[in-house]
Specification:
Blueprint (H helix, E strand, L loop, with lengths): L1 H18 L7 H7 L2 H32 L12 H18 L1
Helix pairs in contact: 1-4, 3-4
Length: 98
């Protein structure tokens, strides 16, 4: 079950990290680039785009897992619901940045 819950847990941590602005920044570049509001806006748009791409890729993995009825090897638990949950969590994180 750990292998199934790990992507969901990581996906659910992404939103609070981005919203609390605890992600890494390059202060050396930011100090030379000018207005922090403009930089923050560009950063938010880039982060949203990146999270949208990640969410889409996880969704495609979930669709494949659903189509081919993938399950865990021992417990035979379907993997698709966990991938769909991770995709939704990343998608909501991207929408929260807007």
């Amino acid at each position: 079950m750990t292998e199934l819950l790990m992507p969901v847990i990581v996906a659910m941590i992404v939103a609070p990290v981005f919203l609390n602005q605890r992600n890494l920044t390059m202060d050396l570049l930011l100090s030379r680039m000018g207005d922090r509001v403009v930089i923050g806006l560009i950063s938010a748009v880039a982060e949203t785009g990146f999270l949208a791409l990640v969410s889409r890729q996880i969704y495609l993995k979930a669709a494949d897992a659903s189509e081919f009825h993938e399950t865990t090897s021992l417990l035979l638990v379907p993997t698709a619901p966990f991938w769909f949950a991770a995709s939704l969590a990343i998608g909501f994180a991207g929408m929260a940045l807007l």
